[in-house]
Amino acid sequence: MSDTSIPEDDMATDGVDAPITEDTETSEPAKDQRRYAFLSRHISTLRALRLSGILTIIFAIALYVFLGGSNNAFWPPKGLLLGLFLGILPIFITWAWSRQINSWRRLIALFFALCSVMSAGFLAHWWWKLYDQTSFNSAFLLTLGLASIGLGLLIATDLLLRGVRDHLGTTPGSADDPSILTPYRSSVDATATGMGKRILHGILQFIRVLVPTAVLVTASVAAHTVANPVTQTTAPLPEGPLPERSTGIGTTLAWTKDVPGLLATASGVAGPVILTTEGVTGLNPADGSTLWSYTRKNTRFCMGRCGQAPFRSQLLFTSPTGRYIAVQFGIPEEVESSNPVHNAMTVVLDTLTGQVTGEHPSNEKNKLQLTDSALLDGDTAYNLDDGKIRWKLAGKKERTYEVRASERNARSGPAGHRSFILTGPDNKYNLISDTDPTSTTGVANLADDPLTEKLVVVNGWTIQYRNSPDSENGEPRENLWGREARAVTLDSLAGLGDGTTPVDLGRISGVNSAASRASGTLATYPPYDGRSKFDSSEYTDDIWVGAVFDTSTQRVTPATQYAGLATAKVGLMATSEKGQLSGSLVVRPGDGSDGATIPIVPGSTVTPPEQLARNHRLKPMQFFPIGETRYADLHILERTVDAMKAPGVTLLLLDGGGKTMPLSQRYYDNHVYRLYGLTGATS
User: Fold this and answer.
1) Could you give the CA distance from residue 419 to residue 660 in angstroms, rounded to a whole number?
2) Going by C-beta distance under 8 Å and a sequence separation of 6 or more, which residues neighbour residue 421?
3) What is the largest CA-CA distance in the chain?
4) How far apart are alpha carbons 143 and 155 in whole angstroms?
5) pLDDT tens sequence across 83-133
6) Helix%, strand%, coil% for the chain, nearest 5
7) Does 116 map to a domain?
8) Looking at the predicted structure, is the pLDDT value of residue 248 above 70?
9) Is residue 22 assigned to a domain?
């Protein structure tokens, strides 16, 4: 005769006669039996919760993959995985022992349940702390907490079901064993309950299994979704033609903009792009307003590579056409633990709309190169339009962030339209197709900037010497008297057949990287006869540009005939405003045409304008690399005024001086930056 106290929904599986004991003067074994008698009335619930625990573990693994756990910049410390293994091993040993021996089963089940909850709470706290301090949303920690709950639910219910089995005296493994994972049949004739109750029971059992799993998974997904560190505004695709990048210099001041925490600037396909401590912003070249923005809280964009001025910082990397831009950020040093494989994140943005087209884990030591359609981050190439992995470099077990492999891809910035640049032995380069990394072409005699020893690539073009440098006593005499050179595309050197022909540049002493970056052209040093110009520590009013190659027109123009920014002198000069000495920003084209003179508004700089203007080292001068050169101890001059050519605007940048210390030891936190947008340039 079955116990009438059994709930109807459990009758199909829980029809057992539970021994009843008195509450008074009951021995411990009797109390134990009474507790198991209570559990025996809820076999269906226990079996459903056990199955729910199994499903939770499975869904945790699936959720890790779905949430992009493998694309998480934060990889757990190395000791965590070892600790997890050492912690799980005794858990399974204790579980296996408790499955066979009835002693302490309920206590052990309770202990495992509490441990799983505490572990999940600890992992959730760790996940939130990491997100709050670094902006990294760790899917690993979140799903590991979910799996911890599932494992605790599985072990606790399994042990309780085995205790019920022993209480009922059921043969282990039989059809009546409530602890088996296979379909369970109670001693009660299931057909006696009726078909309707059997269906109802099946529905209730289904709900019991899914509801706990659904609640836990939904909570994890909601936490991952809500904890979004990114605030983003996008712009629609522009209608009509894009702003042109003219060769002339704008002479009309169209707008000004103060930019706190400025880190770097770059030229997008539709205007300037700036990087601040908050994120990336695309500016409207006509009025300086924000076209789109990507901000991310608690993010370290500099990663120890910031110079003392943002104008020369190489923290934004564009594709050859400027359509895409890549930025890398890392975990704050005070949070970073051990030496993780992935301690940074790389984000790719469309400079037209600000849409994120790709996001993947990286390493601070990785170099970033972009073609028109692909990004090479370390040893892995990604599609720029969707962020998917295109291929990985083979032949090396080490990653590019390892010292021994760091020279495989030792350059960051734009590459060819369809080819990447890898360093090779003896100052040679290897060019590979962005679609076929096995297609390698060795190239020699590529011209670099003698001051920075870095290769300069603009719109897929670079400069190559026609012959190797002369040698004297076995030592190369490179750049002492200049060498014959030509402008050539990387794609053509790689054998990709882009239809271009090399353009003769005459004798040069290298490529002026500062002038080239500012103007979007290939600006060359003139041939310096005699002692090398680059050994001098004196910065005077000298000629730092001999000729300019415009990649859009493929024309070479002597510096004295070029009206663009590459040959211009940019700086500060003293001016008189209403009888009072003041200061002005000055841009003087190299061909003697009209430039621009912009008075500095009093109060817009920390250092008074007249004091800035009195500094003879800030006088107008041509572009050349300052700081972070191989002669860094000699080249100590700071460029307070800098400029950059972008589609539709000539951008002037003024460092208004440092604030009163102490505020922050970070240079960019203590300086005031102002942007000036000049329009009205002639082609």
Assistant:
1) 48
2) 369, 409, 411, 415, 429, 430, 431, 455, 457, 490
3) 113
4) 18
5) 666 667 676 677 666 666 666 777 777 888 888 888 888 888 877 877 776
6) 30, 25, 45
7) yes
8) yes
9) yes
Q: What is the pTM of this model?
A: 0.75
469-504 pLDDT, tens per residue?
A: 654 444 455 545 678 999 999 999 999 988 899 999
| Residue at 117 is within a domain | yes
The closest alpha carbon to 161, from 56, 51, 47, 52, belongs to 47
Amino acid at 386: D
For residues 72 and 342, is the Cβ–Cβ distance under 8 A? yes
Q: Where are the beta strands (DSSP E) in 215-323?
A: 230-233, 252-258, 262-267, 272-276, 279-283, 290-296, 316-318
Dist CA 432 CA 442 (whole Å): 9
Count CB atoms within 10 A of the CB of residue 512: 32
CB 330 within 8 A of CB 343: yes
Q: Which of 193, 208, 228 is the last residue in one of the domains?
A: 228
What region does 459 belong to: left with phi over 0, alpha with psi -120 to 50, or beta?
Answer: left
Range of the domain at 537: 445-562
Report the number of distinct structural domains present in the chain: 2
Residue 286, pLDDT score: 92
Place of tokens 């817009």: 604
C-alpha pair distances (Å), 280 with each of 202, 242, 277, 537: 55, 20, 9, 36
Place of tokens 């001098």: 536
Determine the Cα–Cα distance for residues 33 and 106; give it in Å rounded to an integer.
12
In a domain, 135, yes or no: yes
Instruction: Read off the amino acid at residue 423.
Output: T
Tally Cβ neighbours within 10 Å of residue 429: 20
* Residues in the chain, total: 683
Query: Residue 39 in 3-state DSSP?
Result: helix
Q: What is the 3-state secondary structure (H, E, C) of 588-628?
A: ECCCCCCCEEEECCCCCCCCCHHHHHHCHHHCCECCCCCCC
Q: Give the separation between CA 650 and CA 656, rounded to whole angstroms.
A: 19
β-strand pairing of 522-524 with 503-508: unpaired
Bridge pairing between strands 389-392 and 380-383? antiparallel
Cβ neighbours, 10 Å, residue 476: 12
d(CA 566, CA 588): 11
Domain termination residue (choose one: 531, 562, 593): 562
